Amino acid sequence: MAASGTLDLAGRSAQTSLFNGTVGREIRLNAGDELRARLTNRLAAPTTIHWHGLALRNDMDGVPDVTAPSVAPGTLFDYQFIAPDPGTYWFHPHVGVQLDTGLIGALIVEDPNEPLRYDDDVTLVFDDWLDGVTSTPDQALANLSENGMDMGSMGDMDMSSMEPTAEGMGVSRRQPLGEDTGDVTYPLHLVNGRPAADPFVVKARPGQRLRLRLINAGSDTAYEFSVGGHQLSVVASDGFPVEPVAVDSLVLGMGERFDVLVEAGDGAFPVVAVPLGKPGEPAFAVLRAGSGETPKPARSQRGGRLLQYRDLVPEESVRMSKRQPDRTLTMDLTMEDGGRAWLINGKRFPDHEPLDLRPGERVRLEFINRTMMFHPMHVHGHTFGLVGYGAAPGVPGLRKDTVNVLPMQRLTADFDADNPGQWLTHCHNAYHGELGMMTVLSYVR
Ligand code: C2O
Ligand code: CU
């Protein structure tokens, strides 16, 4: 049920919208099982649920005017579909900027033949929060569409005379996604609906192996994640397994997920997601294994080895075959009017020209970012392989459904057109999407 409600944020109460009264509630099922979920809309506005990352049937994808009508206030809709692939997914509405309320949840599809070994499995949902505290998402959107982005930020530079490259521009260890990563100011960053002052606690025994499923459900914030004093063994990206890689921290763009294995030390440790390019307290939780003083939230977690996409090689079972693309579709990403509009191929959604393809094709997507902001680009209903990452040259490697396209970067992703329908493709910055950075991949059986 979607309804308005009150969220207690360490003694501060925020009026917001919630699924079943909570933020980040988790649904778990086994791969191949049918998910049945009844959405009863008790909000004042129409809403939907989109099941982010799943290759599901198109009419259950929850995109108004593209896959199915929205669910009107006072009515209900039954979602019902098979969850085909194991992994870490999530869900949220696909109406306006409702994503920036409490209407978010985790969807965990377990593998009945799970090859990984671990003692416990914990989901951490990160979220940038303003609703009912400093403003509402609708006010933040109105502010951006009236005033555009912060003047003087790199993001509003005119890049029209430069050509995007494979490396992108203006990124560094300290600013892995560039200088301007978002334009909305958030008073709080939450883990599983809880602020740093009342942190979520992961309980373990020293030496236990934990699988942490990390989900960035934020609307305008990328996070750098780390666990104080621990190495992270990265084992999955957007639900799909990768060959394990040991790092100290990793970046999650909006909509991205990573699964990591962590071997709990003896004591209490800070679990931190630093909002990149934004001031203030991080999203913070505590890993408690054994005794020790509870750590304080601190931003100073950074250093050591940061995960790069090029470190990741898909597990053999999910590698895409080598094949020449049958069709190349270009997505030119631009900004207009000082950030009041964000465009794909010169159009501002809902104005768009659907990108047509045919079932059975190998389709190549060319993302060309002509702006100085990164865009976490998400394709519905498919998982693509990044060309040139984690595979031989020209072969699709790392599997993802949401990929951070860096400032002034050109990035190529291939997918197999095996799930006909009308599939939204968009920037998962909720504000960029709403200000136009969306289009549709279209094919029928
Ligand atoms: Cu999280 Cu259009 O999706
Ligand atoms: Cu964007």
Describe the structure.
- This protein has 2 helices and 30 strands.
- The two termini are 33 Å apart.
- The strands form 7 sheets. It has a 6-stranded mixed β-sheet with strand order 10-9-12-17-14-15, with no helix packed on it.
- A hairpin with a 4-residue loop joins strand 20 and strand 21.
- The protein is mainly beta.
- The longest helix has 11 residues, at 137-147.
- The chain has helices at 137-147, 430-434; strands at 2-9, 12-19, 25-30, 34-40, 50-52, 76-82, 87-92, 105-110, 120-129, 188-191, 200-204, 209-216, 223-227, 232-237, 240-247, 250-252, 257-263, 267-275, 283-289, 327-336, 341-344, 355-356, 362-369, 375-379, 384-387, 396-400, 402-405, 410-416, 421-427, 438-443.
- CU-O-CU linkage (C2O) binds at residues 50, 52, 92, 94, 255, 378, 380, 424, 426, 428.
Q: What's the total helix number?
A: 2
Please report which band the strand proportion falls in: under 5%, 5-15%, 15-25%, 25-35%, 35-45% or over 45%.
Answer: 35-45%
- From the spread of the alpha carbons, the general shape counts as globular
Q: Radius of gyration, rounded?
A: 20 Å
The poorly predicted ranges are none
C-alpha end-to-end distance: 33 Å
Care to count the β-strands? 30
Please describe the biggest sheet, giving its number of strands, its sense, and whether it closes into a barrel. 6 strands, mixed
What is the average per-residue confidence, as pLDDT, rounded to a whole number?
95
Helicity, in percent?
A: under 10%
Output the strand order for the largest sheet.
10-9-12-17-14-15
Structural class estimated from helices and strands: mainly beta
Bound molecules: CU-O-CU linkage, copper (II) ion
